[in-house]
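User: Good morning. I'm curious how NAP would be positioned relative to this chain. Could you predict the structure with it bound?
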Amino acid sequence: MKIKNNKNVLVTGGSKGIGKSIAKILSQSGYNVFIVSRTEEDLQKTAEEINAAGYFCCDIEKAQNCRKLINDMIDIAGSIDILINNAGFYIYSPIETTQEKDIEYLINLNVKTPFLLTKYAVENMKKNKWGRIVNIGSISGVVGEANASLYSMTKSSFSGFSKALALELACDNITVNTIHPGWVQTDLAQNAVEQSDFSFAEEIEMIPQKRFIHPDEIANLVKYIVSDEAKGMTGQNISLCAGLSAG
Ligand SMILES: NC(=O)c1ccc[n+]([C@@H]2O[C@H](COP(=O)([O-])OP(=O)(O)OC[C@H]3O[C@@H](n4cnc5c(N)ncnc54)[C@H](OP(=O)(O)O)[C@@H]3O)[C@@H](O)[C@H]2O)c1
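Assistant: Good morning! Here's the predicted structure, ligand included:
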């Protein structure tokens, strides 16, 4: 456990992909970064690689684990100042073949879990009169994605959540914002393209900039949003998508 002398950050899904980049860049910037995911081996490896303050091996799709996770973080670190609601899952699901168990799973992990973690973290942020909440949505929740209505529905929920909560917490020095990434180079994107009706080449052809986003591009935007320079930015939904939402 390496506690540095700065704000305490919790990054859900911080062991790989976008979450790992966010954790790495915030750790490099002097924050005490804690990561959470379900796979101990990945957590150990990433925590060491990025010099994280610690990690929690926990399935956050289970509601009962959310309260415990925030309590454990506060016990170890003393506070939770920045919450990055990043962990999420994608399912390719034409509506007629979407299974009820998938609906429950995606609504739990992509919607209920970030709500619960935020609810418990806000109690502590309010006490300290400072906080930053950043949600990782998806461009599929901004412009829609055929055969992913379930995923699109869960990700669009962040839009209303960020705006409403930003108003509620505006006088507590707590900001709430959502980044909506387009295609980002991660395992999730690899699996999503493999499940879809399109090849990689066809997906890239549909992106105005003809490229996938690098996870560090998302992480650098997070770094700005959590900084004091961005204290006036709240309730915003920002697309970082290589132009996908532009036309
Ligand atoms: N990649 C893209 O193109 C893209 C585009 C738009 C939005 N997004 C969103 O960005 C976020 C991150 O995506 P990514 O591409 O970085 O995904 P990823 O590479 O699959 O990483 C997902 C992370 O979340 C963790 N995780 C998953 N389920 C969990 C659970 N139940 N409890 C705790 N941790 C869990 C995973 O670790 P374990 O599996 O070990 O638990 C892993 O650390 C997601 O919300 C995704 O919807 C991604």
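The beta strands are 8-12, 32-37, 54-57, 82-85, 131-136, 174-181, 237-240. DSSP finds eight helices and seven strands in the chain.
Let me know if you'd like a different ligand tried.
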